[in-house]
Amino acid sequence: MYRVIKVLNNNGVLVYDMKRNEEAILLGSGIGFGKRVNERFERDENTKRYTIVDREEKQRTGRQVISGMNPEFLELAGKIVELAKQELEELNPNILIPLADHIAVAAERMQHGILLKNPFHSDIRVLYPEEYAIAKKSRDLIDQAVGCMLCEDEVGYIALHIRAGRMDERLEESLQIAEVMKKTVAMAEEGLGLKLDPDSFLFERFMAHLRYLLVRIRDDESISLDMDEYARTQFPGSYRLAEEVCQMMERELHKAVPREAVGHLAIHMERLRG
Question: What is the pTM of this model?
């Protein structure tokens, strides 16, 4: 059973979930039509339910979160979440509020001709291709709804929101991984004396390995295969570079990097030489 707190528009209602004792947003065609504050009702199977708060904001109320937000952006975010769920199968739907807020702010920026540079755009596109593809489709939905075509940099940020929902992590965590990867690529290019082609298979393979490695380090997962001795003796130059990169990872992630990671990274560094 739900109790109406506020009718957002014909397709959205801020409610109190009486069974779970928490506030939520319900989105669905016509769900808000004719509803009144404090009215109680049951939702049908076609209505989508979204929790208001995330892990870091347990004390914030729904009224605070959506205050001043155009409900149209909540609907848009709901469509994007459903699109992502269909294509990725698993997605935490509670990215709705931060995603809606980002879209609203991004649209306002674009309408005023303000472009927010995304320094991780190219990295996000390579790191999270599935999420990026969904974000590009989302851009079309946003354009159709509010007549505002977001730039590629904003597409990257939307992809990060989708990634955060897919991995059930905070946006800051996804951004942190992207930042460490960007620094790793810069160190690899300088240390190896080459320029990597972001569209090459070699680069994509390296980034896939790096992403896998960083997630394991962040989640304190062990690396079973020890290639440390082999990499140190066979590729001493790449090994020294890998050591420097792993030291940087420890500083950025505030996590201890296992010795096995150095050997693995050194081998992939060596492959970049071609």
Answer: 0.69
Give Cα 79 to chain centroid, integer Å.
Answer: 16
Burial 220-252 (b: 16+ CB within 10 A, else e): eeebeeebbeebbeebeebbebbbebbeebeee
Which residues have a Cβ under 8 Å from the Cβ of 59 and sit 6 or more positions away? 53
Cβ neighbours of residue 155 under 8 Å, at least 6 residues apart? 121, 132, 135, 136, 138, 139
Paired tokens of 161: 């929101």
- pLDDT tens track for 221-272: 877 667 889 999 999 999 999 999 999 999 999 999 988 899 999 999 999 9
Q: Three-class SS of residue 156?
A: helix
The helix or strand, by DSSP H or E, that contains position 148, with its residue range, turns out to be none
User: What is the DSSP secondary-structure string of 238-264?
Assistant: HHHHHHHHHHHHHHHHTSPPPHHHHHH
| d(C-alpha 238, C-alpha 240), whole Å | 6
3-class SS letters over 43-73: CCCCCEEEECCCCCCCCCCHHHHHCCCCHHH
Residue 4: strand pairing partners: 15
Q: Residue 176 and residue 197: Cα distance in Å, rounded? A: 22
- How does 43-76 read in b/e, with b if 16+ C-beta sit within 10 Å? beeebbbbbbbbeeeeeeebeebbeebbbbbbbb
Question: 111: which 2 tokens?
Answer: 């309408």
> 87-114 pLDDT, tens per residue?
998 888 888 988 998 999 899 888 888 8
Distance in angstroms (rounded) separating the CA atoms of residues 197 and 1: 55
Give, in order, the Cα–Cα distances in Å from 175 to each of 15, 47, 85, 163, 261: 32, 32, 21, 10, 21
Q: Please report where in the chains the tokens 């009215």 appear, as a residue.
A: 39
